[in-house]
Amino acid sequence: MPSSSLAAPLDVELRPDKPAMLRVDPPQDAAAWAAEYREALRAQVTEHGALLVRGLGLKDVDQVGAVFARLAGELLPEREAFAPREAHGAGLYSSTPWPANQPMCMHHELSYPLQVPGLLLLACLTAPEDGGATAVADAAEVLDALPAELTERFEQEGWLLTRTYNDEIGASLAESFGTDDRDAIERYCRANAIDVRRQGDGSLHTEQRRCAVVRHPLTGRRCWFNQIAFLNEWTLAPEVREYLVDEYGADGLPFNTRYGDGSPIPEDVVQRINTVYEQHTRREPWQAGDLMLVDNIGTAHSREPFTGERRVLVGMAEPRRLTDSGPTGEASGR
């Protein structure tokens, strides 16, 4: 038996406005503990959407990698990333670099590839002085709380992610696709329902239409599953948006989202989505050594502004090819 002592098997705390939490005494071998409790932990994640495990005492990259492997098996390589991450081994990454004073609003990790990660694993090696929580929100509750006229249009049309790759902002072609060979990238795009074109200045522009609402493969719940607000221009800080529009033009932003028919999404719609997310947010500040497991389809997550150093490692697992990944029931580009 592991050295962790629990009042009862997985005695999970459920508290208002906070993610489910499991407190454990530090085990002698965190990876062995994770292997023993794997099925019980995964069941709690399916039930509650996210689970924060406090007390494991995770301290270094190798230990985190071993724990992630026991819980999820093989980790997924990141494809179609919008920002570069530092890799710490196969499928183990730093958290997305993002200005500490700016929030990363609620989203589902990599909701736009045809094959999405069903499970997100996070481990905190260094907790920030203040803020920086990875907050979560139930995607089915968010869907129910959004105005029907908003969700109906997105459910009917889907949402469009547009990207223009450059050498200055966001992930490079090699960081996003694993290669900078244009022919290989275009083959990948054709195979993954992504429209791609080369622009006059030599840059690559892509568009992909995806479903905004999906049915959870395990629970059957209908979920608001997308990155419509997070990757939209109106979620950027005003001065950042103004700079990017001046530098690249309204149609050449490094990333943006639109209605499925290509129409711009108004600022008030984006604000409404983010407001509903905030109303359903559950947050708990990180402590060094914490582990968090997130059902990436049933639960959105965010990163709040922070001060001080923050070091969180990320892994993705359980690839899911959702049958309703395109608005018409089939994966589709435009």
Automatic annotation (TrEMBL):
<keyword id="KW-0223">Dioxygenase</keyword>
<dbReference type="GO" id="GO:0051213">
    <property type="term" value="F:dioxygenase activity"/>
</dbReference>
<feature type="domain" description="TauD/TfdA-like">
    <location>
        <begin position="31"/>
        <end position="316"/>
    </location>
</feature>
<dbReference type="InterPro" id="IPR042098">
    <property type="entry name" value="TauD-like_sf"/>
</dbReference>
<keyword id="KW-0560">Oxidoreductase</keyword>
<keyword id="KW-0045">Antibiotic biosynthesis</keyword>
<dbReference type="InterPro" id="IPR003819">
    <property type="entry name" value="TauD/TfdA-like"/>
</dbReference>
<dbReference type="Pfam" id="PF02668">
    <property type="entry name" value="TauD"/>
</dbReference>
<dbReference type="InterPro" id="IPR050411">
    <property type="entry name" value="AlphaKG_dependent_hydroxylases"/>
</dbReference>
<protein>
    <submittedName>
        <fullName>TauD/TfdA family dioxygenase</fullName>
        <ecNumber>1.14.11.-</ecNumber>
    </submittedName>
</protein>
<keyword id="KW-0408">Iron</keyword>
